């Protein structure tokens, strides 16, 4: 094509190198450029200042040098291709200044917006003015199927052509897309590549066709086709050159608009993701802050990145005091071995709960705690830290101690009752025997004289009273007098 006659294209057209060899050379050139030039593209003042002071940029080899170094072409072939490239610039001298100015002006207008739909509209609005054509069509390449899709046709019954697909390689437009070269067909009916089905759809009789490829850098994005001159004449080489100039600018505008649209979509998607992440973090923080138990979030090094208000309430430290620091200051020395064992399990990806230990407060008080811990992961599933829940079980421990004391008192009472029972049984037997002896001697007073009887019964009564007193002392509920 007249415009964008790059050296690589010329070498391929002349058969000196293959497309694959050209791609390899371009990749090597790109790697060299990336090494020699700056990566930053935003801070323009500093970028230009540093680039101006750079002494290495002029040392980047040209494509011709790279192809020669890779032994894809000879020096003679390079010289021949450079001469052919120079010829392509001679064509522009034949253009009328007014027509060339119109093509450049319209191209600048097309590039004045980054809205894809508006770019398409401007291209099709002005393309007929460049070539003075009756109808025009912009077809974009479907990379998945290789088909050309009629995106913005103009002319009679143009609406009938919207979204019509041209099979790969079919028609004059298909040939242009395949070979990536412009073509001028004075009489379409006499050309075997002509695809007459489009005329059947549009109702327009095609006489002459001018079609050019739309390429962004080296990538084909579609074709631009104009049909029939308004004055009934055929398209000329000058029309071809003007359409190539316009098509090149149109392709750049389309690619810029596409890239801008993709960047805009990515930014919107990034914003949505960021907003969703922020909302998730706020919910996560709300849940943690509402948790009545102290919770600590650590990074992989065990340094604090967050703990909730309950932690401050129970242990005394504020987040500002411990942020970015480890919390080993609140682990008692005797609890360190067991704590390390459990947290090594967490480092291995396990989780645990119900591990009872104790922790220091900021005031050096010891609080019994029940600990649960687990890893938390990033969106890719990679462990990035740990979440630790420390439940204060002081009240629970107090209740357990009270319960144990109650049980000990109950056991002591049962023991006392058992001992009393063991003592009471023989004492009661002694009293019963004494009663029987006293009754026996009362019934037979002849055995003893009066003095002996009185002494015996007195002794029995005294023994009985003593035993009875012992029984009363061991009787439950006996009040002291």
Keyphrases for this structure?
Beta-Lactamase; alpha+beta; 15 helices; 481 residues; single chain; six-stranded antiparallel sheet; five-stranded antiparallel sheet
In short:
With 481 residues, the chain is an alpha+beta fold.
Task: Reconstruct the topology from this structure.
Blueprint lengths: L6 H7 L5 H18 L7 H10 L9 H7 L5 H16 L6 H14 L5 H16 L1 E9 L6 E7 L10 E2 L4 H9 L3 E3 L11 H6 L6 E8 L2 E11 L7 H54 L4 E5 L4 E4 L1 H7 L3 H4 L13 H12 L4 E9 L5 E12 L5 E10 L1 H50 L6 H25 L7
Antiparallel strand pairs: 1-2, 1-6, 2-3, 4-5, 5-6, 7-8, 7-11, 9-10, 10-11
Helix pairs in contact: 6-7, 6-10, 7-10, 14-15
Describe, in plain words, how this protein is organized in 3D:
With 481 residues, the protein is of the alpha+beta class. It folds into 4 domains: 1-94, no CATH class; 95-289, Beta-Lactamase (2-Layer Sandwich), CATH 3.30.450.40; 291-392, Beta-Lactamase; 409-474. It has 15 helices and 11 strands. The strands form 2 sheets. It has a 6-stranded antiparallel sheet with strand order 3-2-1-6-5-4, with helices on both faces. Strands 8-7-11-10-9 form a 5-stranded antiparallel sheet, with helices on both faces. The longest helix is centred in the middle third of the chain and has 54 residues, at 237-290. The radius of gyration is 51 Å and the shape is rod-shaped.
Beta-strand content bin: 15-25%
Count of β-strands = 11
CATH C-level category of the largest domain:
Alpha Beta
What's the number of domains?
Answer: 4
Strand line-up of the largest beta sheet: 3-2-1-6-5-4
Q: Tally the helices.
A: 15
CATH architecture of the largest domain: 2-Layer Sandwich
- Global morphology: rod-shaped
CATH topology of the largest domain: Beta-Lactamase
The biggest beta sheet reads: 6 strands, antiparallel
Q: What is the C-alpha radius of gyration, as a whole number of Å?
A: 51 Å
Order of helices and strands: HHHHHHHEEEHEHEEHEEHHHEEEHH
Q: SS-based structural class?
A: alpha+beta
Unreliable spans are: 37-42, 51-57
Determine the CATH superfamily of the largest domain.
GAF domain
């Amino acid at each position: 094509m007249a415009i964008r006659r790059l050296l690589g294209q010329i070498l391929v057209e002349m058969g000196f190198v293959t497309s694959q060899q050209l791609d390899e050379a371009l990749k090597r050139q790109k790697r060299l450029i990336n090494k020699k030039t700056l990566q930053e593209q935003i801070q323009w003042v500093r970028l230009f200042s540093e680039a101006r002071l750079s002494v290495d940029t002029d040392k980047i080899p040209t494509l011709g040098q790279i192809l020669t170094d890779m032994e894809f072409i000879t020096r003679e072939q390079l010289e021949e291709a450079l001469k052919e490239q120079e010829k392509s610039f001679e064509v522009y001298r034949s253009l009328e200044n007014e027509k060339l100015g119109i093509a450049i002006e319209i191209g600048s207008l097309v590039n004045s917006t980054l809205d894809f739909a508006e770019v398409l509209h401007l291209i099709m609005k002005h393309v007929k003015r460049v070539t003075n054509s009756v109808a025009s069509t912009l077809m974009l390449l479907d990379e998945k199927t290789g088909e050309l899709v009629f995106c913005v046709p103009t002319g009679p019954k143009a609406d009938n052509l919207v979204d019509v697909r041209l099979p790969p390689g079919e028609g004059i437009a298909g040939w242009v897309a395949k070979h990536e070269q412009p073509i001028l067909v004075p009489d379409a009916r006499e050309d075997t590549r002509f695809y007459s089905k489009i005329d059947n759809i549009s109702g327009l009789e095609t006489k002459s066709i001018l079609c050019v490829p739309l390429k962004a850098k080296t990538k084909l994005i579609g074709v631009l086709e104009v049909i029939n001159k308004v004055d009934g004449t055929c398209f000329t080489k000058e029309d071809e050159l003007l359409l190539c100039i316009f098509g090149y600018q149109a392709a750049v505008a389309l690619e810029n608009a596409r890239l801008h649209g993709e960047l805009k979509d990515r930014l919107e998607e990034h914003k949505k993701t960021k907003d969703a992440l922020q909302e998730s973090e706020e919910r996560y923080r709300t849940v943690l802050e509402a948790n009545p138990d102290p919770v600590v979030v650590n990074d992989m090094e065990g340094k604090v990145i967050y703990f909730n208000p309950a932690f401050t309430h129970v242990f005394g430290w504020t987040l500002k005091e411990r942020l970015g620091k480890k919390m080993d200051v609140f682990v008692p020395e005797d609890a360190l071995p067991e704590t390390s064992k459990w947290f090594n399990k967490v480092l291995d990806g396990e989780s645990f709960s119900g591990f009872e230990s104790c922790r220091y407060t900021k005031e050096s008080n010891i609080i019994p705690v029940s600990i649960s811990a687990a890893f938390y992961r990033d969106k890719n599933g990679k462990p990035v830290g740990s979440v630790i829940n420390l439940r204060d079980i002081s009240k629970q421990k107090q209740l357990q101690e009270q319960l144990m004391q109650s049980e000990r008192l109950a056991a002591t009472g049962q023991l006392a009752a058992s001992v009393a029972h063991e003592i009471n049984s023989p004492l009661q037997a002694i009293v019963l025997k004494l009663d029987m002896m006293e009754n026996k001697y009362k019934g037979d007073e002849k055995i003893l004289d009066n003095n002996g009887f009185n002494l015996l019964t007195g002794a029995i009564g005294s023994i009985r009273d003593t035993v009875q007193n012992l029984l009363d002392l061991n009787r439950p509920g006996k009040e002291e007098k």
